[in-house]
Write a structure and sequence with these properties.
Two copies of one chain form a homodimer. Chain A has 246 residues and is an alpha/beta fold. In chain A, 37% of the residues lie in helices and 22% in strands. Chain A contains eight helices and twelve strands. A five-stranded parallel beta sheet of chain A has the order 2-1-3-4-5, sandwiched between helices. In chain A, strand 7 and strand 8 form a beta hairpin. In chain A, helix 2 packs parallel to helix 3. The interface between A and B is large, with 39 and 34 residues. The structure holds a DNA duplex (30 and 30 nucleotides).
Chain lengths: 246, 246
Amino acid sequence: MIRVLLVEDDMGLAGNIIDYLELEDMVCDHAANGVAALSLIQKHPFDVVVLDINLPRLDGLSVCERVREDGNDTPIIMLTARDQLENKLEGFQKGADDYLVKPFDMPELVARVFALAYRRSSQVKKLRFGNVSLAMGSDVVSVENVPIKLSPTAFTLLKALLQQQGKVLPRERLLDAVWGEDAPESNALKVHLHNLRKSLVQANASIEVKAVAGTGFCVTLKPEQSSSVQSTSAEPKSTNKGNDQW
Amino acid sequence: MIRVLLVEDDMGLAGNIIDYLELEDMVCDHAANGVAALSLIQKHPFDVVVLDINLPRLDGLSVCERVREDGNDTPIIMLTARDQLENKLEGFQKGADDYLVKPFDMPELVARVFALAYRRSSQVKKLRFGNVSLAMGSDVVSVENVPIKLSPTAFTLLKALLQQQGKVLPRERLLDAVWGEDAPESNALKVHLHNLRKSLVQANASIEVKAVAGTGFCVTLKPEQSSSVQSTSAEPKSTNKGNDQW
DNA sequence: CCCTTTCCTTAACCGGACCTTAACCCTGCG
DNA sequence: CGCAGGGTTAAGGTCCGGTTAAGGAAAGGG
């Protein structure tokens, strides 16, 4: 599911665009001025921002600039009636990812939103990271080209993580990827992550799933691969905590 | 440095584009047909591929499709004379990231290539001071390009200080940066600053955090770096105060 | 139709990272 | 000397992620 923020003060056009995007199963938020937009972008993670340039209170270019200064690299599509070259260049220079001139065809906007949101994940048929590869069509995960078995949930998690290409995926988005709107209230996510990790270790994958402070998770290459054979349970590591047994 | 592959069979236009891109310090490779392009893309990592659709031997759409099937997510800009909507949509559907209609302005092509290449390399904004750099997007602090670990609060402090570029940051603003409206009433700030300093020293950073009279704090370059090895606690400095032990 | 397997959920627990707090130390200054 | 501002240290507590095991639902095979 793609989350879009539309920033457009022409309410009629805005409604139009939103209707159209929601037909494509995108979730749309809307801001009618630059200040509101900035605050929304800073607070919530969007997949794409569709940003008009002519805005009350703070123009689109400035919004874009400020967002980039914050180190936020959310994809931004500029939307404007000006099609002069220098306008476009200015837009790109402020950190825009795309620039669409009004009037435009709705399907083109949709296509460009998709391209930015899913860039390199929607069309890509295979995800790779380290010695792990995930075939999108067949839902098969392989390590060194040897297929391994994952539970459906573990697979979904891995897919979502791999699509981020090593970037951090907020916890909330992970929940969303697996359960959609209504996530279980328990620590199910932790358990599934644990299972996924266990599977990856057993398969000798060269990647691991790392937790990032209070934000989310990401996949990384394992720092070291001591080439010793790991017989999966041979070492008396202190994995066991506080249990007297064992 | 950005590496671009240009796939274009019109040699005149190709030369033109290459000249233009190289003016921008990009390194250009060139292929004149689809098969050659595919093989190059599979062999070398490019930052961006500029791909004409009308090509001998294998058309651009097919090239794009095959690239994506391989799990290769190199950004691709489609280049074509057809500006019909359905052509564009087809391009995006095959996995293109952008679509530019001929004739186009060279600066716009350059801008779009930059946009795609930068996003890819996550070349987001960075703060630097001495040998310390702070990547705004990923919240990673590095010393000599080696990432170091900071607690969230220490990170926030460092970020706020670095944003001042060596100028003094009033104590009150620092409090605000970390806790917002309601700061703790204790000396928490002092403790966090202390931890930050400790981390910086351990990481061999060339900067330090200085206190300024009754006003605030700032970062400065360390005056001297006696190149002796610091084993973190080797020198019998009078760090210890008034304690009988030791 | 029942049994087995697989998988998901839930809860309890551990441990570490982190934040807060408070006490103490130093130096400089009136 | 006392006070103020900054620096240092250690203790306590909370929060969060990781681990484990048990119970139940769904799927599949006999």
